[in-house]
Amino acid sequence: MAGEWSYKREERTFDISEGEHELTIKSAATATSKAGNPVLKMQLTAEEGQSLWYYITFLKDRPEITNANLTALFDAFAGIQEGDFDMRHWVGQKGRAIIKKDAQGYATLNRWVKAEPIAPPIIQQAPMEQQPVQQTVQQAIMPQPTGFVYNGTKY
User: Fold this and answer.
1) How many domains does the chain have?
2) Is the dihedral of CA 80, 82, 86, 87 positive or negative?
3) DSSP labels for 103-125?
């Protein structure tokens, strides 16, 4: 198989500079850690297209740590409703994070940046037809009868 492959050199850039970046969730799934704990596994993409993996391990004996990590995640993505674990809703959402380099020089997510809440859409109502106030009040007090003749005028 390898002998039939038409090799062409292609280099990828995975390096993300340190600092604040907008990250888009490319994929999100659950997995199991080596210790048997559930793990949330996310592939994130930075503005320039570089990828970064982020994991949250669900620690049964330390739920406060898991909940703090999840709270920071939900706070960073204004488009994900807090407590929504349907990861299909997560894909494509954008959030911000601080990226740092570890001791080996690899980019790691240092912390999430809290997003500004999304304001509800402003719904403009179509203008109501203006009717003279007197006519509106008169109709509200006494409905106008129709289909009869009074003093020679048909109503």
Assistant:
1) 1
2) positive
3) TTS-EEEEEEEPPPPPPPPPPPP
Can you give the CATH number for the domain in which 98 is found? 2.40.50
User: Whole domain around residue 86: which residue ranges?
Assistant: 19-113
**Is position 99 within any domain?**
yes
What is the reported pTM?
0.66
Mean pLDDT by 10 residues, the chain (155 residues): 66 74 96 94 91 93 94 95 94 96 88 83 65 52 54 60
Rounded Cα gap, residues 50 and 99, in angstroms:
12
Whole-Å CA distances, 58 to 52, 54, 74, 102, 104 = 20, 13, 15, 23, 26
What distance in Å separates the CA atoms of residue 135 and residue 110, rounded to the nearest whole number? 67
DSSP letter at 86 equals -
Is residue 74 a part of any domain in this protein? yes
130, part of any domain: no
Tokens 């409703």 belong to 81
